[in-house]
Amino acid sequence: xxxxxxxxxxxxxxxxxxxxxxxxxxxxxxxxxxxxxxxxxxxxxxxxxxxxxxxxxxxxxxxxxxxxxxxxxxxxxxxxxxxxxxxxxxxxxxxxxxxxxxxxxxxxxxxxxxxxxxxxxxxxxxxxxxxxxxxxxxxxxxxxxxxxxxxxxxxxxxxxxxxxxxxxxxxxxxxxxxxxxxxxxxxxxxxxxxxxxxxxxxxxxxxxxxxxxxxxxxxxxxxxxxxxxxxxxxxxxxxxxxxxxxxxxxxxxxxxxxxxxxxxxxxxxxxxxxxxxxx
Length: 279
Known about the structure:
It comes from Astyanax mexicanus. This protein is α+β, with helices and mostly antiparallel strands. Helix content is 18%, strand content 32%. A hairpin with a 3-residue loop joins strand 4 and strand 5 (73-75).
């Protein structure tokens, strides 16, 4: 992958920050970020500033971020944030084409400089997940996500797992519901998106043996500490993670897992026509 040697990454909230070690003007950097990520970095609070510092990881030099002056300071993605982290005496170049760099010698505080100069830069990529800090049963969480977002998150890949880990660290419960479900009638785990489980991150003693269904159906959660998956009774009330991406269509999800809205004593049944498909 191209960015392996060029970028460091750090997560914060819904943004994943990437440091790209190419020397480019601000405009060139903006174009690069928009083509390969989401945009040049927007930094809206101290938590995000700390995440950017973690991504830079002590590297020396100057780094473009997405702030530029027009008639006022505007972020590249149009975000309306008043957060600033200026170096002492900055900004001091308020005439002409000026953009913002991070200065490593001043703790990565902000400096305004001519946008034409070549410099490494920081991009961000939006994470299409949202942590809901309400406490709901698994079924309630599923219904909430489908009514208000897209679905409970299905963790198909290590990349999605990393997003989940980032979002889950802000949870107010020890475990967080995801779209992982066990069917006692058929004896296996699956994602509510209808896809099989290929990538796995089970905690020891979970998910790989015969489940105890004597007290009801079981669903999957992520531990907010270890970030591994565990099997829990569905009636526990936890925070949960919804996806905001349209990658998994609501129509396909409902057709695959069509009985989840029935009373809790009804055994849910998968649609075999779509279970072994990726959506």
